[in-house]
Specification:
Chain lengths: 593, 283
């Protein structure tokens, strides 16, 4: 009974309770008790959503910190905030995963590398992670999609905002500001910040600035125009290994102009123009016997394009069809080589169609996309998803799709392919518990692997299971657990692939009381199945985040927070040169107005 | 691969098939008798297919995800929390009811819980009272009182206003109305009518021998003279008609928010007799 009372008090707003008391006095007949942590998702794909509230709870600095806590994602290097990092998604390498910001790829053209540590979190409203091939919707997305959705203008006020600052070991500081509001039909959202550190490890310093702006104009008759610009630039030291140290300077700029218009009751048109630019310089310095030598590699890339999307929604089905076009260009040069390593451009064109039909308890979604990549051949990527609702809050899902990734603009034969199949179950019908389980089989081929004699193409099979569970709050505390097992082999019965994590465990304990005191304890363990690189990963890394919100009037609040990372000084790294830092503490304060 | 292609083509060729999705997502804050009445009224009037999600059954609910996956044509929010969550997404129009503090949004409209002030002014006229005291929080009821004053200017009723910013100020503000009013109008304003301050209205009523006109039955037993209350079932029906017109293609932004169209008048006969008031029931 106590369980129910606690859950109810969590679930309903105080304001609503006062409204009910106002009309009903003490006679308000509320028969209620939370019976599930969350409703089951009815989509056929295996999707995990991270909201801005989750991001606050983790005291995240960049997208890397967000992905660190997601089941099925394995972040290879958690080091100084903002320092570049690699990750895997269900064992798929980072260069198989498409990372989108406002629907624009962050991945570089030369290496398909998504720099998740360059994405600050303040501007993020939610992140949706699709696991398994998503080429039937997005094209170049063999291993999945990480879709970063940005915040929209505050519709309630003409002006409001946030300012925050945090400080920790080695002068690690994160300063942020945010302004947002709406006046008549015009809304704006602006965010800026600076992330810097002397580096928690050798040659791991960071000094990065970012800005995000969104201007939104509501057109008459249900249309809107949105102009967005995101800029992230700065320096970070990558590692130091004896006399060799590597650092980089990067600059990302993405601008979009998007329009949306309801043409008829059933038909909606969306159009977008996109321009993005990526510049970077990698410095590799060698200090030997007092002589210093620096090798530089410079990168300059651009995307210009746009697309149209039509959505038809009626009593029978939901159909989405669209066309994308982009002109891409990349140039890579090195201080050691006179000629460019890469200097190429291409015109890319994609057309897609997706339909969702609901047939009683079944929903089926056939989709397909055709891409003319201009550099890596033409690709047809179909997918088929089906869900079956066992009850209102339990679902069986199946999804199968083929997909591809262009791992480089440099080589015509750099296209890698996959057939993914995911079968899952999700339920909120068990008392006080939400559970989700997925069996997956990702069969990839033409995977480029460097060998002593050059490059070979491998077939890699990654099969496994992903389990997630979350409880209702008990004594204001809820527990979440995620476990992923991946069995990776070369071919169907070949040798085990080293470096693909075998076991991943995520544990989260969240406390939230009515006095606005919140705490989050997370535990993270990855068995990297890779002993060759001097890695140490036998420890669980525990992080603790605490914050207390204090309100001053209706609009102003002050929120001091503290994070203790790597609480027990554990080791968790796959490569010796990318060791994780020991315990460190961060203090900060956030002011909302 | 061949199999997938075949499957895809076969399914695309099957279009259109009869589908059994739903049109209206009813998002209800919690299970409560009044909310259930309103939803029953809504179902009576709007025959569209619907799914009901009661938020208190879940510790967290991602409405953005639900609307994107299940693409209802309309969200009906029942209660303040449901409305706040529904307004966080911007892909589906929102109709609300049983929300005391609806925030104006471009994609949302609905039926408020507040009766049009003219209904109350008619009661004061029928009671023969001229100077009516009102305690209110400008941040909650400012707009409503503004309209009430404009309407009162056309009648013989004169509103004597007292502002409060916190619940504890209410008894003091009521005292300041001593000798200056011949009726009290109790508003559904959570600052002005808090559990601790409710008694002060009726003590004032007894001491000054002036009637309290209120908005809910529950205050009649405490000493209120007349209650002009909402009919939750009819609010549901009224919103059902609104939903029907949206589903038939009328843009939500062309539908202004409405006051409940039906009011139920009840009086406490003992208090009416004691204060020698003319009866207003049965209106």
């Amino acid at each position: 009974m106590l369980f129910l009372i606690i859950a109810v008090s969590q679930a309903r707003g105080d304001e609503e309770l006062r409204s009910l008391e106002l009309y009903n006095g003490d006679e308000a007949e509320i028969v209620s008790g939370s019976r599930s942590p969350r409703p089951a998702s009815q989509t056929a794909e295996n999707i995990t959503v991270v909201t801005s509230e989750d991001i606050l709870a983790l005291n995240a600095h960049t997208l890397a910190d967000i992905l660190y806590a997601v089941a099925g994602v394995q972040v290879e290097m958690i080091r100084t905030p903002g320092a570049s990092t690699n990750f895997k998604l269900q064992g798929a390498n980072f260069n198989h995963v498409l990372v989108l910001i406002d629907n624009v790829p962050l991945n570089t053209l030369s290496e398909n590398y998504p720099d998740i540590a360059a994405v600050p979190v303040q501007m993020i409203e939610r992140v949706e992670i699709v696991k398994g091939a998503a080429s039937s919707a997005w094209g170049n997305a063999l291993g999945g999609v990480i879709n970063v959705m940005t915040k929209s203008p505050d519709q309630e006020r003409a002006i409001g905002g946030m300012a925050s600052g945090s400080y920790g070991k080695r002068d690690t500081a994160d300063l942020r500001g945010e302004l947002s509001g709406t006046v008549d039909s015009f809304g704006y959202y602006l965010s800026g910040g600076k992330l810097r550190s002397d580096g928690l490890l050798a040659n791991n310093g960071v000094d990065k600035d970012n800005f995000y702006g969104k201007l939104l104009y509501d057109l008459p008759n249900g249309g809107s125009l949105a102009l967005t610009t995101w800029l992230s630039q700065g320096f970070n030291g990558m590692y130091q290994d004896g006399p060799v140290s590597t650092s980089q300077n990067t600059r990302y700029l993405i601008s979009t102009l998007a329009a949306s218009y309801q043409l008829t009751d059933h038909l909606r048109l969306e159009a977008a123009a996109v321009a993005s630019e990526t510049e970077g310089t990698l410095f590799r310095r060698t200090d030997l016997q007092g002589v210093s030598k620096t090798l530089t590699v410079a990168l300059d890339e651009s995307r210009v394009g746009g697309g149209f999307k039509l959505s038809w929604l009626d009593e029978l089905q939901r159909v989405v069809a669209g066309v994308d076009y982009e002109h891409v260009a990349a140039q890579v040069s090195s201080s050691q080589i006179r000629a460019d390593i890469l200097n190429r451009d291409a015109d890319r064109f994609g057309v897609y169609l997706s339909d969702t039909l609901t047939l009683g308890r079944f929903a089926v979604t056939p989709s397909a996309r055709f891409d003319r990549t201009g550099s890596g051949g033409d690709h047809f990527s179909p997918s088929f998803g089906v869900t079956y609702a066992l009850t209102d809050n339990s679902i069986l899902r199946g999804y199968t799709a083929t997909g591809y990734s262009l791992t480089s603009l440099n080589r015509s034969d750099s296209t890698e392919k996959v057939w993914t199949s995911q079968f899952g179950f999700e339920s909120g019908d068990l008392p006080y518990l939400w559970v989700k389980g997925t069996l997956f089989r990702n069969d990839t081929w033409d995977v480029i692997a460097p060998t002593a004699t050059g490059i070979t193409k491998e077939r890699q099979l990654k099969q496994g299971v992903e389990l997630e569970a979350k409880t209702l709050p008990l004594y204001n505390t809820s527990l979440s657990v995620g476990y992923t097992f991946i069995g990776a082999t070369l071919g169907v019965n070949g040798p085990v692939i080293k470096g693909v994590p075998k076991h991943t465990v995520n544990i989260g304990l969240r406390y939230q009381d009515p006095s606005h005191f919140r705490g989050e304890l997370t535990g993270h363990y990855v068995d990297w199945n890779e002993a060759r690189q001097g890695g140490r990963y036998s420890d669980v890394i525990w992080d603790l985040h605490l914050r207390k919100e204090m309100h001053y009037g209706e609009k102003v609040s002050l929120e001091p927070f503290v994070s203790v990372r790597n609480l027990l000084n554990g080791h968790q790294y796959v490569y010796r040169v990318y060791q994780n830092p020991g315990r460190w503490i961060e203090l900060g304060v956030r002011c909302n107005f | 691969m061949q199999f997938l292609r075949f499957l895809l083509l076969a399914l695309l060729l099957l279009i259109p098939l009869p589908a059994f999705g739903y049109d209206v997502l009813v998002l209800q804050s919690l299970h409560e008798k009044g909310y259930e009445e309103a939803v029953n009224g809504f179902k009576r009037e709007c025959r569209a297919s619907m799914r009901r999600v009661v938020l208190s059954e879940y510790a967290e609910a991602d409405v953005t995800r639900i609307t994107r996956e299940e693409h209802p044509k309309l969200i009906v929010a029942v209660g303040d929390r449901a409305l706040a969550l529904a307004q966080k997404q911007n892909s589906t129009p929102v109709l609300y009811m049983m929300a005391l503090n609806p925030k104006p949004r471009r994609w949302s409209t609905g039926v408020s819980m507040l009766l049009d002030p003219s209904r109350y002014l008619s009661v004061f006229e029928a009671l023969g009272t001229q100077k009516v005291g009102v305690v209110y929080d400008p941040s909650r009821s400012g707009a409503y009182l503004k309209r009430a004053q404009a309407l009162a200017a056309r009648t013989r009723v004169d509103l004597v206003l007292r502002e409060v910013r916190a619940a504890k100020e209410t008894p003091r503000m009521l005292q300041s109305l001593r000798g200056k009013v011949d009726a009290l109008w109790m508003l559904p304003d959570a600052t002005a009518v808090s559990p601790g301050a409710t008694e002060a209205y009726f003590l004032f009523s007894q001491g000054e021998r002036v009637p309290v006109v209120t908005f809910a039955d529950v205050y009649l037993t405490m000493g209120g003279a007349v209650a002009l209350t909402i009919d939750r079932f009819d609010i549901g029906r009224q919103l059902g008609e609104m939903a029907q017109s949206v589903l038939e293609g009328k843009p939500v932004e062309e539908i202004p928010p409405e006051h409940p169209r039906r009011a139920i008048t009840k009086s406490n006969d003992g208090v009416v007799r004691q204060l020698k008031l003319s009866s207003v029931t049965g209106r």
